[in-house]
Recover the amino acids of this structure.
């Protein structure tokens, strides 16, 4: 089987979709090393080049010096040029890691849909996602030969909003990182951690509200660390960090390189993921893998990931969020139980299963394409 994956999401700062793309490629290369799957990675950028590292050994690479925005405009609006023309090669499967198809002449077309937040709240998105996804995603999903989603929640959303039958959807959840659980909590008491891009749907403002209210009634709050790239929409939150009481309690450390992420989790007493919506929530899984207790919003796919391994709160209620943080900070038994359950739960998420699920989705897509063409 000859498969092409659009690797552009992992070309620069790997978070969310980019990390999923990179780890999926690693898992596929590890699971199918002997020719059963011939994998090609496609990249396109005016400035950035895809330089394969050891993780990508075994995959062919096609790297074109075409601006991402220009290529996306041509693909989304004109569905041209086909991937075979851009690469000079033929494929059995063309796999897009976002909801819009890769134009292809003969290859079966697969899309991965991480979430549908762009439908319900386009104001929380930007650039091409706001411009093209709400208008085009439903049509592309119906035309795709197969759809991959990362959680049961997103599968239900795709069925409900796009009318795609369940048999054309595969749930291929991410795997946990290959980290051993930490031996002990941080000796200095640690910090409360948020990890993710600082964008509207992550509800960072609600987290700051909760922390500000906690600071008004207790002096023993640990620091709050915001780890993630700040979008332009994060400016008001960053301005709040320059004023009391948050100026002495909250640090923004910016984007964290994948090689440094484990260390950031190691120093956390608790992870807080208060998002209004998530298609999966990789930080929750990464934290559980190490045994870091988790508080997450009862929204999107976060309950699918966390299960009973932590605390779930309503994202629009800063007082409830603050109360959950306070409980997790003060209750040693609660933290220990969340840590132990999280480690066990994380072990059920495995990248080899993701690879097998994706390979099966490719086979289903090829069969659908063959039947549709007959």
């Amino acid at each position: 089987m000859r498969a092409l994956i659009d690797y552009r999401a992992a070309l620069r700062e790997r978070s969310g979709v980019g990390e999923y793309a990179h780890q999926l490629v690693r898992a596929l290369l590890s699971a199918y090393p002997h020719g059963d799957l011939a994998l090609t990675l496609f990249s396109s950028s005016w400035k950035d080049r895809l330089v394969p590292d050891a993780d990508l050994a075994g995959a062919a690479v096609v790297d074109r010096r075409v601006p991402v925005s220009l290529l996306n405009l041509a693909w989304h609006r004109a569905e041209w040029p086909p991937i075979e023309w851009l690469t000079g090669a033929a494929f059995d499967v063309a796999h897009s890691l976002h909801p819009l198809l890769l134009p292809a002449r003969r290859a079966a077309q697969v899309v991965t849909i991480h979430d549908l937040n762009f439908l319900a709240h386009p104001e929380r998105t930007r650039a091409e996602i706001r411009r093209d996804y709400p208008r085009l995603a439903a049509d592309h999903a119906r035309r795709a030969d197969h759809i991959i989603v990362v959680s049961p929640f997103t599968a239900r959303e795709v069925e409900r909003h796009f009318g795609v039958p369940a048999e054309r959807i595969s749930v291929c959840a991410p795997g946990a990182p290959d980290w051993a659980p930490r031996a002990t909590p941080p000796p200095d008491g640690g910090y409360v951690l948020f990890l993710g891009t600082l964008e509207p749907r992550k509800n960072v403002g609600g987290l700051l509200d909760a922390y500000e209210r906690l600071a008004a009634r207790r002096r023993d709050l640990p620091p709050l660390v915001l780890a993630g790239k700040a979008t332009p929409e994060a400016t008001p939150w960053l301005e709040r960090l320059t004023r009391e009481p948050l100026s002495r309690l909250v640090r923004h450390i910016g984007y964290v390189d994948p090689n440094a992420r484990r260390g950031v989790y190691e120093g956390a007493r608790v992870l807080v993921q208060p998002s209004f919506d998530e298609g999966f929530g990789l930080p929750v899984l990464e934290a559980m893998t190490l045994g870091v207790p988790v508080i997450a919003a009862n929204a999107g796919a976060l309950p699918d990931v966390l299960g009973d391994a932590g605390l779930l709160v309503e994202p629009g209620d800063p007082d409830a969020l603050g109360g959950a943080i306070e409980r997790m900070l003060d209750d040693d038994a609660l933290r220990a139980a969340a840590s132990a359950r999280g480690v066990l739960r994380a072990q059920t998420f495995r990248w080899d299963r993701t690879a097998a699920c994706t390979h099966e989705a490719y086979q289903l897509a090829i069969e659908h394409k063959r039947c549709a063409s007959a």
User: Anything to note?
Assistant: Residues 351-373 form the longest helix (23 residues). Residues 191-346 form a domain with the Rossmann fold fold (CATH 3.40.50.2000).
